Amino acid sequence: MIDHIGFTVSNLDLSRTFYDRAFAPLGIRLLMEVTEEMTGGHGAHLGFGRDENPFFWIGTGKAPSTNVHVAVSANDRAAVEAFYTAAINAGGQDNGGPGLRPHYSPDYYAAFVLDPDGNNIEAVFHGGFTS
């Protein structure tokens, strides 16, 4: 089980705004800010999560040579759709609108959006028609 994930972004303020808006429908919010001074010069970091558990981190530093893909759980199909709309309205780029992906599993309902750095951010619900 993965406890948290983190990656660098090219513009922390722009990415903060994007994730604040894109994650709101999923009940994920900014929980923690760590300054560069606090890390002893190892970058500034923002931790997003639920229930006081920051599990999704972005920060400053050397950018990765390739983009990442991160999938976040949604409570129902409506949350997947709301994530997609919020992310697009926050400046994200479509990378696969809300819908079933039966090639993953029969009830795999997801949406994919590229963040300001081209990272593939997904919201997924694994539960059929309970939205």
Task: Name the features.
VOC family protein, 2 helices, Glyas_Fos-R_dOase_dom, globular, 2,3-Dihydroxybiphenyl 1,2-Dioxygenase, domain 1, five-stranded mixed beta sheet, 131 residues
Description:
- This protein has 131 residues and is α+β, with helices and mostly antiparallel strands.
- Strands 5, 6, 7, 8 and 9 form a five-stranded mixed beta sheet that branches. A four-stranded mixed beta sheet has the order 1-4-3-2, with helices on one face.
- It has a single domain (5-125), classed as 2,3-Dihydroxybiphenyl 1,2-Dioxygenase, domain 1.
- 19% of the residues lie in helices and 34% in strands.
- The model has no long low-confidence stretch (mean pLDDT 92).
